[in-house]
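Notes from hallway chat w/ T.B., transcribed later so I don't forget. T.B. wanted the structure written out for a chain they're using in a teaching module, and asked if we could keep both sequence and structure tokens in one place. Agreed to drop them here.
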Amino acid sequence: MKRWLALASVAVIGWTCWPLLRSRLLPAAGPPWLVVLDGYHRLDRALALQAGAAHRRWPILLITCPQTDQPTSAQRARANGPLLVLLEHPPLGGDTAGQAAALGRWLRDQAGQQHPRRLLLLSDSHHFPRARWAAQLAVGGLGTTVQPWPLNGQASSPELWPAFRDALRLQLWRLSGSTGARMVPAFQQYKRNQCF
């Protein structure tokens, strides 16, 4: 009995940590991408990076709500490479965990294409390190490493409860395909009103 319990524990720990381990042990081979959460000034920064030598012509993936009307025609005109838009739709999207799950689902659906070895995740500093952890759990199993790029200074110190909550929600998404947002209807309705 103890042997089976030990094996089950190892299996659960291995499954839980796989998104963190796979990107280091078996990294994906695809080209890097810039990923932008919510657009606005963050998308402007990604476009500036895309025009620079270090990130020239990296594809940009903007994850945003339909109500933002992003990207604008001026932003599209500034793009020096592919600019793709992933519009959030319920039940995914509307918050950090939902955006990470939408990113993970989108990458998995890119049949016949190599997954990116690295994603440069652009958002405001208050989103980090929580957004990076959530995105790493969503895409790490594909061999992709998420690197945070806080736009306004260093990443803030982690808010433990939101970071832990999002990590649990992403593990639930990996297991069931749902982030559990429906378990809090009032919050889901608030986000729906803000985003969709």
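Follow-up for T.B.: The radius of gyration is 17 Å. Might be a good example for the class.
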